[in-house]
Amino acid sequence: MKRIEIPYARDRGWRYRLMEMLPGVLSWSILLLPFVLSQVSPTLTIFFIIVYMLLWFAKAVGLNIRVLQGWRTMQYHQKLNWSELLDELENGEVADPHAKRPKWHYSNLLRLQVQSAPVKPSELYHAIIIATWNESREVLEPTIQAVLKSHYDMSKVIFVLAYEERGGAAVEHQALGLVADFKDKFGYAIAAKHHDLPGEVIGKGGNITNAGRILQQYLETQKIDPLHVVVTTLDSDNRPHPYYLAALSYTYASSHDPVHVSYQPVPMFTNNIWDAPAPMRVIATGNSFWQIVQTLRPHMMRNFSAHAQSMQALIDTDFWSVRTIVEDGHQFWRTYFRYDGQHEVYPIFLPIYQDAVLTTSYRKTLKAQFIQLRRWAWGASDIAYVAEKGFFSKNKVPKLDLTLKWLRLIEGHISWATAPLILTFAAFIPLLFNNESFAANQLPFIASRIQRIAMIGIITTLYLSFRTLPPKPARYKRHRTVFMVLQWVYLPLTGIVYSSFASLYSQTRLMLGKYLDAFDVTEKAVITKDNETISGL
């Protein structure tokens, strides 16, 4: 097997370390650039700031259009009769010639008449791995129930509850109890206990990799072809849409080469959106909208949170990385290099509902949100990995495709760290050093007008934020809805503190070689009907 695992810190040479430093160096350089240029050429500085803001204005318009398109696509896919589509895919023809079907469905049927599918829908099994650390039953049981509510034959579904030995006896007792309570409703169910092994980062990767290997053993005993098994990983609070398994089955069975594909549903952070504090609601809504946008940009899509792959691909990649805290996004790159660049991500236009950050106190929640985002931002560590495996190791990956993907990876993390700060403060920097310059004095007013026009996009955000809300819990009065509108005053604060600062924190640590070597589990709390907060961790 190709060496696709992340090298240990002791094995990273100067070249790898240079690439680890790259995102931090670029981000801090960009942030310092307006200060330096203001002393060298105020006119050039003003020009660059205005151009930068106009580019982001255009980008904001594009994102608003994309999020509307993506949301409408999701609405359409939630209304489809996936059972009928699967039956017709199985038989190779439309059962009712007068029935209205999507154009892509007819295209798939025509293509499969020429080239038969590697796997028929009836031959397919689903494995659901739910990873848990020490979340409470109040968090885990609704996730299992959501899977069971799927409009799908549950006898073809294998349930694996992956738990940690270090969680102690109480966690093990709960895991075994949950599997015992629900095993009769699945085709097969097992609790997989993970023992920490030398060389593993304490995190989710080792846990679900252990679960994957236990699942592989079961499939071998049952003589089930791993190509016929598609594996979905869920966090403890991930609740799939009832049609998710059917839509995933359709997409998998209609793929001409399902081994070389990852399947990505849309994470929507709305499970507890009514309960979360206002800043967390703003962040959760923004994250949901970003994921919707990504579904329409396949060239930009990467594995994130809940995702699916064929069991064969997981075996070929030796499952997930056990040396990173961002095993989901990193799995895309592992598979990409394992198959010499023959790997892509297909969107599943259905939601996986997840929790917004909520713990047992307001202060703890604010802290937990920052910790979650800095963990996501640690994905910048993949920049060095991609450079090492793609440019400095022998491989057959198409170099143009690799270069474009690597540059997009860099740009995404740099923008994450710098854009909110530059858009908010850069217009005032030339004035600090050139207070007698007419252009420098006018720049804040010009920037303010651009930002004011850009804020029109908040109408789209408000509209969709209400359309994506789950029903308001009975324990909340009407004024809670008003707060859902007023919460958007936090947008500049969340963009700076929770976007830029979290990203800069991770990039700076990476630049200094101070690695995040443990998965900081986001603490979860559940608010009951009686308005009682129960710790979920």
Task: Explain what you see.
There is one protein chain. With 537 residues, the chain is an alpha/beta fold. The chain folds into 2 domains: 9-70 and 407-535, no CATH class; 119-368, Alpha-Beta Complex (Spore Coat Polysaccharide Biosynthesis Protein SpsA, Chain A), CATH 3.90.550.10. It has helices at residues 14-40, 42-79, 82-91, 103-114, 137-148, 169-182, 204-221, 244-254, 278-295, 311-316, 327-338, 362-377, 382-391, 399-425, 429-433, 438-454, 458-467, 479-486, 491-512; strands at 125-131, 157-164, 188-194, 229-234, 239-240, 261-268, 307-310, 344-353, 525-527, 533-535. The strands form 2 sheets. Strands 3-2-1-4-7-6-8-5 form an 8-stranded mixed β-sheet, with helices on both faces. A two-stranded antiparallel ribbon has the order 9-10. Strand 9 and strand 10 (533-535) form a beta hairpin. Helix 2 packs across helix 9. It is globular and about 80 Å long.
Label the overall shape. globular
How many domains? The number is 2
CATH architecture of the largest domain: Alpha-Beta Complex
Proportion in helices = 40-55%
- SSE ordering: HHHHEHEHEHEEHEHEHHEHHHHHHHHEE
CATH topology of the largest domain: Spore Coat Polysaccharide Biosynthesis Protein SpsA, Chain A
Low-confidence stretches: none
- The total count of helices amounts to 19
Number of strands: 10
CATH homologous superfamily annotation of the largest domain: Spore Coat Polysaccharide Biosynthesis Protein SpsA, Chain A
N→C terminal distance:
38 Å
Rg, alpha carbons: 24 Å
Structural classification: alpha/beta
Strand content: 5-15%
Strand order of the largest sheet: 3-2-1-4-7-6-8-5
- What average pLDDT do the residues reach? 93
